[in-house]
Amino acid sequence: MSPAGERADGRGPARLELDGVVVDFGGVRAVAGAGLVAEPGAIVGLIGPNGSGKTTMLDVVSGLVTPAEGSVRLDGVSLVEYLPEERSALGLVRSFQDCRLFPELTVEEVLLLTLDAGRPVGVVSTTLQAPWARRSERSKRRAVDEVVGSFGIDRFRRHQIAHLSTGTRRVVDLASVVLARPRLLLLDEPTAGIAQREAEAFVPLLRRLHELADTTIVLVEHDVPLVFALCTHVVMMETGSVVSSGTPDQVAADPRALAAYLGASAEALAVSGAPVPGAGGTGSRSSPDRP
Amino acid sequence: MSIPSFVLVQGVVTGLGYGLLAMGLVLIYKTNRILNFAQGQLGVVAAVFLVKCFYDFGFNYWFSLVLALAMAAGVGALSELLLRRLANRPRVLVMVATIGLSQVLFVFTALPFIRPKNLYKPFPVPFDVSFHIGTYTFTPAEVMTLVVAPLVAIGLAALVKWSTWGLSMRAMAENRDSARLSGVWTRRTSTMAWTVAGVLSAFTAILTSPGQTSSLTEVLSPELLLLALAAAMVGAMTSLTAAFVAAIGVGVVQEILIWNLSSTAQVDLVLFGIVMVVLLVRVAALQTGNRREERSSWLEGTRTRLRTQGALRRRVGSTGVWVALVVAALAPLVLSTGRTYLLSQICIYAVIALSMTVLTGWAGQVSLGQFGLVAVGALLAAHLGTRLPLVVLLPLAGVVTAVVAVLIGLPALRVRGLYLAVSTLAFNLWFMGSVLGTTCWDVPLVHRRLCTGLPNPQSTLLARPSLFGLSLGSERAFAWFSLGILVLSLLMVRLWRDRGVARRLMAVRDNETGAGAMGIPLARTKLLAFALSGFIAGYAGVCLAFATERISTATFDPTYSVLVVSMVVIGGLGDIDGAVLGAIYLVGLPAMFGTTSTIQFLTSGLGLLVFILYLPGGLAELLHRLADVVTLSLERLGGHGADPPSDTPVEAVTPQVVG
Hints:
The complex is a heterodimer. Chain A is of the alpha/beta class. Helices cover about 40% and strands about 20% of the residues of chain A. In chain A, the strands form two sheets. Chain A has a six-stranded mixed sheet, sandwiched between helices. In chain A, strands 2-1-4-5 form a four-stranded antiparallel sheet, with helices on one face. In chain A, helix 3 packs parallel to helix 6, helix 5 packs across helix 6 and helix 6 runs parallel beside helix 8. The longest helix of chain A is centred in the middle third of the chain and has 20 residues. Chain A is globular, with a radius of gyration of 20 Å. Chain B has two domains: about 270 residues, ABC transporter involved in vitamin B12 uptake, BtuC, CATH 1.10.3470; about 300 residues, ABC transporter involved in vitamin B12 uptake, BtuC (Orthogonal Bundle). Chain B has a two-stranded antiparallel sheet with strand order 1-2. In chain B, strands 3-4 form a two-stranded antiparallel ribbon. In chain B, strands 5-8 form a two-stranded antiparallel ribbon. Chain B is globular and about 75 Å long. At the A-B interface, helix 3, helix 4 and helix 5 of A face helix 18, helix 19 and helix 20 of B.
């Protein structure tokens, strides 16, 4: 069974290295020789206009898309030969936008479910209440107690997912990510489709996630101020290539990045060092669509 | 195999009847995405009314026919108005609602202004034409079918192809939301579809009723429905023409089989084989056409929000359970023998309903063949009852039935939802007719005789065994035994719900992709639902066989499977307590308040509709609300906002938690 639920080897966050990745969709070159490095424990933000190949990069890492050329390495091991299912066994977890959640289950059940995959208990042992089944369920509940407390969703524990707001659902999704104990976490637009007010709460929340899960994070996000506030490293993409890469300050100062993307919205630059809640967010959020 | 030409013509006549039925099923499925179990019954009211007009009022046949068809149209339209309220509910609930509807319509046929004074007069036919092929004489009714049914089919096809309504309907079938946005009045279109379906159904009843004296009021037997459904599935539930042609094919094949094979069991065997092959072959087409609808949550909104919780609520719940248990345990001491027998029946039906809760409520797979699984257990009891002690027989039956259930569930890995209803129904009919009904059969190649069926298909006697040396012969002892089995089953199912099994099943039901991404093994989890359900149904079958002491093939009729589906819906789909409440309601109440079948049908049919319309959470929701009220008033009385420290550890099974 996959050890996805428990970091069995006890190793810390993983190092991800992509180099010269080329992806073709029919005649369209979605990614043209892009590369990035995520050091262990880093939070790497991928930004860029629509269609610049950000999500495709995540697909390459999680194995949904096979690159035509280039290498993908996790701690120096090439991932190209691994199926998506096998990658999850290496501690690679991807959070899709909301699609992992289950309308009829309660928050508690969803979180327990995350742990079920890693530590399955057979139905016979459950029925007979074998000691290991009891132990496993108890430890799962303890882990859920912990994560529910640290994400502040204790009062939603017994609510059905269907009755939660999109923002709360996203928090539950993040909590279940923590329980999956990733070594490398891929987040695809964690704030998409949620209210601005809730989106602002995401910076501390994602920091908390990073701290609790002790993992490397690669995230794709349209909310530029959020990326600049949160990430230790920013990668800027345009039409399938990396145009700028470095610390948030470096990227913000890079004239190529300005030309490619940020130039259109001066306020996005202004808030890059210290995000102003509300004011900067709205302006920059719309900017990718109107470069 | 010989095929005289009159058998072929006979087959066409039979097939035309199926064809009209199949077209009605397709029509409703296209517009509303539901399997209409009332399709046969919609027109029966009108057919009975035709007899009334013809004989009692003395109208001329054609005038009576017009009145009857008008009535059928009205019945169809009214049915749609009723079911419209369920537009946003899970499809499985609407399907069960049509079962309720058909039972209510059945009651309609007994109303004084519809029911003819003399039921035994021959069904009227407008002309007296007959012809011979070989030695067989075709009756006027058969001649009428040969003429009228194709005309009706062509008329409908033309209507769908060229009328505005037909266009709207086809648009709705493609994409309901887009159709609405482009200005299609989906409600009006759907009402129209039901109206047409009612008229079609009336034609079916009017054409097939002459010559049959007994089945005037109940046209849609499960067998007939299954064959019509199989035909409809050839057309992927969307093509009217394919369904009609396929239905004629089914009719011809059936008549040829009946002519050539000696027993109905063999005919059934071949027919259901064909149904299964059709299902498996057409899976791909069925899936692509209906992906969006099948993906929607089965039970969205049926689970109620938790109002009160905490230790006090738990205590109220467990007190309720204990009181119910003590009452049930003491009841056999005071009840009459008949009532004690009823208590065992309720317990056993509740266990069977629990097997349904696991499969339909949690895993979202609809089974209309649960009594086929029960029959597996009962058959084992009939063969091994005297040889094995009961404590061995019960788990053995459970395991064997679980294996059978997994085999039936294999198509579920590819098909979803309603299609499984058809294959399980086919299994139920096949197991009842062919396996139970054939006492012994010759194995073709090795020339040995295997006796696997019921020793006597009409009536097999079973002697009740003893348990740990205690005889279960008396009704009182058996009632306690059944109650014990129910309590053990409840404990087991509750463990499954609270300790991880249920959440996996529900996760796969609600979001297959998501569950897969989490690392939940999809195929194994789906089959697990069947295995668990089969396990429960298997030992319940042993209990049922010993409870009734005399079993026959009819004991396992699919109508009982349908009854169990109604039970879990009335009780509250997916709710453990609901299964028990449903069994009490559907087995207990009719037995106590009326022995006539009309009253039974009325209780269940009307009850079903009322529950589905006004109480989506079922009886269980009522019970939980009651517990909420008690908890709240106790809190107010006690005046303590905070819960007293719980004396039960958190790990303990928490009874009565909503959903």
